[in-house]
Each structure stands twice: as structure tokens, then as C-alpha cells.
Amino acid sequence: MLNKNYNETKNEYAIWLTTLGFSNGLVYDYKFRAKDFFEYLQSKNVNTINAITQKNIETYFEYLQSRPNKRTTGALSISHLNHNFMAIDKLLEFLHQMGLQTAPIPTNYRIKPDKQQRINNIKPLSKAEIKTLQANICNAFLDQPFKAKEAKQEQLKLIFALYYGCGLRRNEGYKLTISDIDFDKKTLFVRQGKNYKDRIIPMNTGVCKALEHYIYNYRNLQKVTHKRLFTYSVGTISDLLQQLQKLTTIDKKITLHILRHSIATHLLQAGMSIESIALFLGHSSLESTQIYTHFV
What we know:
296 residues; mainly alpha; DNA polymerase, domain 1; 2 domains; three-stranded antiparallel beta sheet; 13 helices
């Protein structure tokens, strides 16, 4: 548990990020990472903001790079590490803005990912594996009450419609609302995807029918305070995908991003051009799309 000094600073940091216009998701993320940092400092008997030194920042960054992942096996990913580094740098900027001139300065330290290694680590699912996962949705959460089981199964169906069927990025799919879907034109309108770009994505007949079923037979019956298609948090829907995998013998890493890679791979195998796939995925350059040529 955080002491009063750190807890108040964490909360003030979140408020400051909000005033700067950071999204709710990023504010929550940075606040959580600040909490982890303060808990680490307390474990080292550094118990006040005034006592934090540049050396503390360096040793914490070293600790993160050697710390095992709490949720999965192995170390923290480069992306996860860099998000931590950014969150702490922003925290240090906040402390200076609040007048603490003795606070350490932001490090701007980042780990440059090995692009080729990242590409080699991506193992898209085959069409057969996608079908296996989808076929097992009806077998998931059978030990739970009907409403809980139904909700989770419906979220899983939506995952495959959006992240595989439409190749959406993680936040693009999560932020999608009913009003972003045009069933007459069979299109999705993605608002401010990566680099704040809007784009329109075509839906095939299967995706269109899946979304119609989800909206009219499930989503419209739910009493929630937001307009998003997903009724669960983005972290929870990712967890549901992991739980679905346990019902199969598939030993590949399965994430929302892997589903996006998988549909691109299958489109490429089906003969679609790199240029068309780039438009479908919302890539600003063909270089980003060409990584999929490694899979065929």
C-alpha cells in the first residue's frame, strides 16, 4: 500500500495528465505505472517525493528490464518497458511543473526494438486455427451463470468479427460504436486510428451478419452508460481470448494484434495486393505492410 505522500502525488499526476488532454485509457495506464514505481521506491526505503534521486530512476529502469512478467512467462516486452519509461519521464516532468526543482530530470531513455526479431516472433494463426477458436466459443465459460456466460461468449464473437474480420488495431476495435457501422453499405468507420487518421473499412457478408446478430440480439439489450460495442474493458476482452485458447491445443501466442496479423496474412495468401492490404489495415506506408510477406 502506498504511503500518503506517494498516493496523493499519484492522484495529482493523473489529474495533471487529464488537464493536458491525455485519453482516459492513457491516464489510467500512466497512473498505474506510477503506482508500481512508488511501490518499488518504498521497498527501497525511499518514502518521500523529495528523496527521489536520479540514481533511483536508473536502478528502477534496470530493475524493470530484469523483472519477470507478472501475467505471463518471460521478461517484460520492449513495448511494455518503453511505456513504463515514458510514464516515469512524464511523472518527472509533472514534478518539475509542480515546482520540485530537486526532482530527477526525465531520462528520454528508450529501448530500440529489433524490427527483424519482432517480425520473426510474430506467428499468425492459420485459417484452421481461427476456425478452431471460433468453434470453441460455445464451449467457453459453461461453468458460469447464463448471463455471465452469454456476455463473455458474445464478447468473444465480437473480437473475431472486428480484430480478425476487419483487421482493426486494439484501440480501434475497442472504441467502435454502433453509429460507426453502416449495414447498408457494409462498412465500418474508424475514427482517429493510428496517427489520428479516419478510415472506412469494408465488411464481408460474414462479418456483417455477425455484427447484426451481436447488436440486435445482445448489445441493444444491455444497460450500460457508454456507446461502445464492447461491454467489457479492453484488458478483459484480451483475457477472454486467452481463456478461449485454453480450450484448444493451439500453442501459439494469441492476442488481438495477432488476429490483425492473421487476417492480413490470409488476404495476402488469397492474392490480395500489398497496396490493398495497406489500405485495409490503415498503414501509411507499404513498408509497414510488407512484414506480412515474410509469412507466405
